[in-house]
Write a structure and sequence with these properties.
The chain has a domain at about 5-40 and about 75-120: SET domain (Beta-clip-like). About 5% of the residues lie in helices and about 40% in strands. The chain contains one helix and ten strands. The chain has one helix at about 50, and strands at about 5, 10-15, 20-25, 35-45, 60-65, 70-75, 80, 90-95, 100-105, 110-115. Strands 1, 4, 5, 6, 8 and 9 form a six-stranded antiparallel beta sheet that branches. The longest helix is centred in the middle third of the chain and has 4 residues, at about 50. It starts with 5 loop residues before the first strand and ends in a 17-residue tail after the last strand.
């Protein structure tokens, strides 16, 4: 059985000028480099209203084809900051219960790694914290 967790050796958590902490790289990364594969904890739809009343609301992912369940990703996944034009993307595998993060363009040493919380690297639709 293949491992369901992986963290690229150049990835680390550091202080972000954007939102407190963020994920960075200590080396240059080519486009299409898998930088993390993280297991998730899947929670049933009945728990979502409770979680939405807590700080965890900002760190969970809608989960499943109907998006009624939610998940908490382990590893660094919850620490990638948002950018409308990101340098990484994530993919959810509902069967394996993992989230994979990979670069979508070349990333320079020391750069912060961003994902678009809308799920599409260039989706400019306002995310929940920009709608407030």
């Amino acid at each position: 059985m293949k491992p369901i967790n992986f963290l690229h050796p150049d990835i680390y958590v550091g202080k972000s000028g954007k939102h407190g902490r963020g994920v960075f790289t200590s080396g240059s990364l080519e486009a299409d480099t898998v930088i993390e594969v993280a297991p998730v904890i899947v929670m049933p739809a009945k728990d979502r209203p409770i979680i939405d009343q807590t700080l965890l609301h900002d760190y969970i992912f809608e989960w499943g084809k109907t998006k009624k369940r939610c998940s908490m990703a382990l590893g660094y996944v919850a620490l990638y900051n948002h950018a409308y034009h990101s340098n990484c993307e994530y993919e959810m595998d509902f069967t394996k219960e993992i989230i994979t993060v990979k670069t979508i363009k070349k990333v320079q040493k020391g750069e912060e790694l961003f994902v678009n919380y809308n799920g599409d690297a260039d989706n400019a639709e306002a995310v929940w914290f920009d709608k407030k």
